[in-house]
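We store chain and fold; thus.
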Amino acid sequence: MTLQAQKPVDDGEKAHWLAVRPRLVLASAFMLFLELALIRWTGSNIVHLSYFTNFVLLGSFLGIGLGFLRVGRSRRQPYYSPVVLAVLVAVVLTFPVTVDRNTEGVLYWTSLSTSGPPAWLILPVIFCAAALVLMGPAELVGRCFPELPRLEAYRYDLIGSLSGIAAFTALSFLSAPPVFWGLIAAICYGLLLIPRPRSLYLGLVTVPSLAVVGLLLMETLTAGAIWSPYYKVTMRQLTQLGVLVTDIAVNGIPHQQAVPAAARLQWEAQYGLPYERTSKPPKDVLIVGAGSGTDVAIALSKGAGRVDAVEIDPKLRELGGSVHPDKPYDDPRVTTHITDGRAFLERTGDKYDLILFALPDSLTLVSGASSLRLESYLFTEEAMKAARAHLKPGGTFSMYNYYRESWLVDRLASTMQSAFGHKPCVDVVSTAGQQAVITAGVTADAQRCASEWPGAAPGTPQPANDDRPFLYLKDATIPPIYIITLGLILIVSLFAVRVVAGPYERMRPYADLFLLGVAFMLLETKSVTGFALLFGTTWVVNAIVFAGVLVAVLAAVEVTRHFRTPPLPVMYGVLLAGLLLAWLVPNAWLLSLPVPLRAVAAVVVAFLPIFAANVVFAKRFAETADATTSFGANLLGAMVGGCLEYAALVIGYKGLLIVAAVLYIGAMVLLPRKSVTA
């Protein structure tokens, strides 16, 4: 295999003031940071992205792949990137998409009434703009690759990517507003793009970068937003029926109200029904989705002696502590837990008289995982069995929300029936919006129903489970809007690759690397969703998992660089064995383990195939004749893998392992003959 560096294709790079290694690390860090910032910021202003969470991710992968493929075809600096970023920021702030209704309620799929540009117009703009923006940093990264040995370049690229994740995670921890993201982008553009000629640099780099910072500063100062790790949170105070109410919106969607407990109970019966359906007054109460504190205040007003309040978003909890008129979080009977509700149930050893899921609709998806919402694992049959296991004798479990569809009420009620072994109480408080309360006692004698639930209507879908936790998907199918959108993405991508990279023949020798990219994206998705189930859907868990994937990749590169590894067919065998192990180990067994042992087992199961897959990639990449084209083909494969993630809606997340195995076998078949013994 050949590891010698190639001659740089761009003589202009010799004039760069940064040496190639630090430049590669900085460009890689900037590339990943910009990708994460775009996903986070566009989703806070374009409500449609709550349902296409990987839309910007797919555009980013396309742009990164195109950036690598463009290396060698142009010697011009990618000045287009800051210009397109400035235009994107201006368009999104000028034409945001928000929900134009003032009632609370669960949102799912496309059941939205919105103001702003329609989805068919704004989503293609966002996708294409994300691709063009990321193509610039990717091109800067790609220009460094020919100057270094293959695996050394890949190594510094991974170190930079980890640095980008660390920087964005730190800013998320500090709840920094987007103006700081814009400042970092402006600084990176200034450091990486060569200021020659100066007039061109001033007009295409300095001015657009300052425009981005200025626009994001205006947003920060005028919106009055609080930036949590999940949302852009805004609030307004108003008087409703003589009562001071604080309305809280997230990402432009009405979400919660901080209302005195007495007023809430008077206005909406659903909040008091869980306490009326119990066989005894609950003293120990667990509230999942505590939010701004109204449900906690109601529990205290009903005589609870102890309340565990679980809320995933730290900023919503902080708002509740500062603006709720009843000050429920100041009460010594209340203990707050900032974590995912399912993770709390799997971790705690406490038992309760009442467990309440209080409108836990997150209105956002887990970044990087198709269709997995923050609360998805709360509404599976396994989750309700976990809740039942934490009830005291005579205890009850209850949930309420605005379910919008009668089949959804029946699905949740039948899920509860399956988990508890008897029919629950079902109170449809209002048919407008299907406002309902569903309650089940630990035994049938522990609940007090107003009337017997007649059972689920014909055609009600089966209960959701941990493998397919898609509560709002009625049928095991991919909704047409996704099929059409993903098809258009692939068509646009094929056209863009042809225009930017030239004939497809350039990538033909690297068809196996393309398939490796497709399969690895599916493997990463399975890992992210698996860790979300085992440890929670929190942003901290997601950041750790994404960083862990990169560490596993980096470890594979270092092992390949410093040690003699088995031939590629053998490594493919190890990889397929790792996939088989991941398939055979059930989630239920992992959840039954103590948290430290669960962490060790989960890391082994998830990261063994990831490590093996990247040893395969590193060995194959090291011998390629064209570093940038081969790497670009792999990145474009990752984009296709992002589209293929939606197959989980039909076959479940575990089924992605089978698809990945087929793709890896295909990549092995396409190996060049000289690589078989490498």
Residues 340 and 538 are 6 Å apart (CA to CA).
